[in-house]
Amino acid sequence: MRALVWEVNPGVRAVISRALFLRGHEVSAHGDLASTLIEWQTEMQSLVILGWQDGEAFEACRQLRSMEGGSDVVVLVVGREIPRDLLLSTSEYADDLVAPEPEHLAARIAVAERRVADTEQRRQAQEQLVRQALHDPLTGLPNRALLSDRLTQSIRAAQRQSTGLALFVIDLDRFKDVNDTYGHHAGDLVLRQVADRLRGALRSSDTVGRMGGDELAVLLPSIGETNVAVATARKIIHALCAPYAVDGASVTVGASVGLALFPVNGRDSETLLRQADAAMYVAKRAGGGIALASAEAPTARSPATARIVDAPDPAIRNGALSAPMGDRRVLTDRRSQAELLRTIGQDLDRNGTCPSTIICEDDGYRIRENGAELWFAMDEVIRESTSRALRRQPY
C-alpha cells in the first residue's frame, strides 16, 4: 500500500514515515503542502497522513477532498493538543486524529489500512456493477446502451471538429447453423472469437459493441469517406469469414454489413443506427456483403433504403469456404430432407460414408460429416440445365 505524508517538522515526519515503513507501506514524505497535493493528484495514494501544523491540516483536508477521487482517500491528521473548537470541523474531512507517538501511530495506521481495504472493495464492486450494466457478459463488448452513448459523444465531437464518422451494423450469416448443429455452447464460443477478431481488426479508438444475438455494431470515429469505410468493412468480413475452431470442429460463418455515415445518413445516433440496420438487411437479403445506406432521409412513406457496394465471393456467401468445389451441387427445387438424404447418401455410400447432419435452409441444403461440409444450393436461373444434369447422374 502506498502512503503520502505531509509534516513540516522533520523529526515528526521521520517518526510517521518509519511507522508506515514498518507496516510495509511505500512512503512518500514532504515538508511542503503544495508539492504534497501535486503528487497526490498524479499518484493518488490510498492513505494520506497530514501534520496538524497549527490548524493548516484543516485547509489541507478540505483541498484534498475537493479533488477528483479525494472523497475515497483515507486521511489521518497527526498532532497534539488540537483545540476543541477545531476538532469537530477537522473531523468532517479527516478519518482519524492521531497522536504522534510510535505505538499510537501503529495502532491507528492498522485501523486506517482496514478502512482502505473496505473502500477498495466498495470501489471494485461499484465498477463491476457499472461494467455489468454497460457490457455484454458473454463477449465483454459494450452493449447497446454503451454503444449508443459513445455514438452520441462521437457525433458531438464530429460536429465540433467538422469531421465524419462511420457506423456498421453486422449480422452473422449462417450462425443459426452453428447453434443447430453443434449446440448453443458452440455458438457462444464462436461469438467470443468474433469479438476477439473484431478487436484485432480495428483501431483502439474504434468501438465494437454487441447489439444482441448475432448482431454487432462498429463505430469508427473520424472516418467520413465512403471508400475508407467500405475498405474497413471488407477487412472485417475477411476476418470473420475464416474458419472457427469449436470443440475440435471447424465451422464458418459469413457477415452482412450495413454502413451509415455521419452526416450524410443522419445527424443523431437514433437515425444512424436505424439507417445502418436497414442497410444490413439489404445486404442480408442479397446473400451477404456490404450495403451502404441511402443518402435520402427515411420517412413513413419512404423507408430507409440502401445499395450493395460490395458482394462476397460466392464460396463465402454459400458457406462453402472450406468445402472443395467438387462437393458443391445445385438443385432445381426444394426436396424433403429425407429424399435429399436418400439421394445424396447413395452417392456418399460409394466411399463408405453417410452424412451425419443435414440442414434444410431457405436457399439450399447443407450436409456435414466429420468436419467436412457439402453445400447444395438452389438457383432458379440455371433450373433447366441443372435439372437435365441431375437426371444424367447415376443416382
Give the helix/strand layout:
Elements: E1 2-6, H1 10-22, E2 26-30, H2 33-43, E3 47-51, H3 56-66, E4 74-78, H4 84-91, E5 96-98, H5 102-134, H6 144-161, E6 165-173, H7 175-182, H8 184-201, E7 207-212, E8 215-221, H9 226-241, E9 244-246, E10 249-251, E11 254-262, H10 269-285, E12 289-293, E13 306-310, H11 314-317, E14 328-331, H12 337-348, E15 357-361, E16 364-369, E17 372-378, H13 383-391
Helix pairs in contact: 1-5, 7-8, 8-9
Give the C-level CATH assignment of the largest domain.
Answer: Alpha Beta
Order of helices and strands: EHEHEHEHEHHEHHEEHEEEHEEHEHEEEH
* Spans of at least 5 consecutive residues with low confidence: 299-303, 313-365, 367-372, 375-395
Radius of gyration: 32 Å
Q: Using the coordinates shown, work out and report the CATH topology of the largest domain.
A: Alpha-Beta Plaits
Strand content: 15-25%
CATH architecture classification name of the largest domain: 2-Layer Sandwich
In terms of structural class, how would the helical and strand content be classed?
A: alpha/beta
